[in-house]
Amino acid sequence: MSNQYNNAGKSLIIDEVIELKGTKKDNAIAFRQQLDAQLIKRDTESVRALVALIASDNHVTASEKVILAREFGNITANHGIIVAKSEELGIIGQTGYLNYLDSFQNLSAYLEPLISDLSVGSDIVSHQEMINLFDSVYSTSSVLEEQFFRYTTGMLGGLDYRVKFEIVVKSSLGLSVPNDNTETLLSVMLLREGEDVTEEYDSASFSWARVSEDREADMTWRANEDLTGKQLSVSFEDLVNRVSSFICRFRHQYSDTMYYAKTGFITISEEVPGPPGEDAISVQIFSSNGNVFRNGQCYTTMTATVFRGEEDITEEVDASKFNWERISGDSVADESWNTSSKAVGRKSIELTPEDVFGRSVFACHVDI
Residue 197, SS3? Predict the structure, then answer.
């Protein structure tokens, strides 16, 4: 199919769009988002495969020349757009643009004599040379097109935050782990605009980490294990001073330079046995605005919720039983913060940049 799309007053030709390949839905989704963002990127995977097939026998038939001429016409049309946009953005002196220009000129010098006569076939010296020339144009133009996108949207870091993702981490044994070291299985669920899309992304897009009051130990926690995947088994031995948070990071690189990212977490504590015959008590902390912040950007409400088994019993516990703790690189300041009116006797607290000193971890202790 062919579509025309307008970008800064220029018509873009989007040709040979492949909506789905196999069962991978994320390819089509990513392409639609690129189109909506006024990218001039083309899906070149099938074209690359076709060029490789044409070149494989070191002979290009008349009909294959027609295919190559048509594709070169698409590349040439895109070339005009790339040059104009590069001049508009003032990047014609940058390495990326110069690499692309060299690639286009090399392909032109190679292909124009070959397709000058479409009525007869022609032998070629090296099939790999043709493949490499086409690949070079596709790769260097892709880098430029992503650069156009970042300049247009201001997303210079490559992170695509236009799509709303949410990560939910669940535990097979609830929010506490038994003291007998029985393992609990943590599972991640990825939501996109409220819809479960976990299966659309492979396991390599998810990775796990631990956050506790022992920051040095967190850095080496399970250092010899592969912590990628959609599930993670943890036990009492993975806790630090009876409680730890386990973070699942989602990152999906959907093009050469653009990616999605989102982080979710769950806090697991040591099982506190209740009276005989009753369920264990556990505490879960919820943050209204995520759980990882850059310096100077921490604005969130943290709320402690108390569970008896799976039942929320927070309302049954008096606020005076709740005490918040901050652990940072300044133990003296932490002690002052931990005993302030903000930290004592509150089921929820408002955090601002003034409450954060470097890398800080917040916990809530409930006296039951």
Answer: coil
CA nearest to 82, candidates 33, 134, 144: 144
Structure tokens at 251: 């990152």
Residue range 97-150, pLDDT digits in tens: 999 999 999 999 999 999 999 999 999 999 999 999 999 999 999 888 878 877
Over the stretch 187-197, which tens digit does the pLDDT of each residue have? Answer: 999 998 888 99
Structure tokens at 31: 């392409």
What's the one-letter identity of residue 351? Answer: L
- C-alpha 291: how far from chain center: 16
Instruction: Classify residue 241 by its DSSP letter.
Output: T
Q: Which residues pair with 195 in a beta bridge?
A: 192
Q: How many CA atoms lie less than 13 Å away from 123 in the CB half-sphere?
A: 1
Question: Given the DSSP bridges, would you call strands 259-270 and 176-177 parallel, antiparallel or unpaired?
Answer: parallel
Distance between CA atoms of residues 2 and 18, nearest Å: 11
Q: Counting every residue, how long is the chain?
A: 368
Lowest model confidence (mean pLDDT) among 4-13, 252-261, 334-343 = 4-13
Strand ranges (DSSP E) for the chain? 2-7, 10-15, 59-60, 122-123, 165-171, 176-177, 184-192, 195-196, 206-211, 231-234, 243-253, 259-270, 281-287, 300-308, 311-312, 322-327, 348-351, 361-366
> Which of 53-87 are b and which e, b meaning 16 or more Cβ less than 10 Å from the residue's Cβ?
ebbeeeebeeebbebbeebbebbeebbebbbebbe
State residue 75 phi and psi, 5-degree precision.
-65, -40
**Lookup: tokens for 68:** 């190559």
Residue type, 237: E
Give helix 127-153 / helix 95-114 axis angle, nearest 10°. 140
